[in-house]
Amino acid sequence: MPLKTPDTFEIVGLLPPQNGTCQYRMRSEEERHERVAQEDDIEAVEDTSPKQADNSNTPGTAHLR
Q: What is the maximum alpha-carbon separation in the chain?
């Protein structure tokens, strides 16, 4: 049975561009490791989880295409 990739990831960091495309560090609550994805490979989703407001620069939540 093939493994299923989580649908939603939290973007936890911005990496230097590669070939002119932004890259992001991402993680899922279902996995213990982080992934790296280019901007062209993700789509933004509305974050509906309850979070306390802060002044951090957290990029957001995304689906991996």
A: 43
User: Could you tell me what percent of the chain has a pLDDT over 90?
Assistant: 43
Tell whether 2 is covered by a domain. no
Q: Which domain holds residue 36?
A: 8-64
Residue 25 has φ and ψ, to the nearest 5°, of -85, 130
**Total count of domains within the chain:** 1
In angstroms, rounded to a whole number, what is the distance separating the alpha carbons of residues 8 and 26? 9
Kind plus residue range of the DSSP H or E element containing 22: strand 21-27
pTM above 0.85, yes or no: no
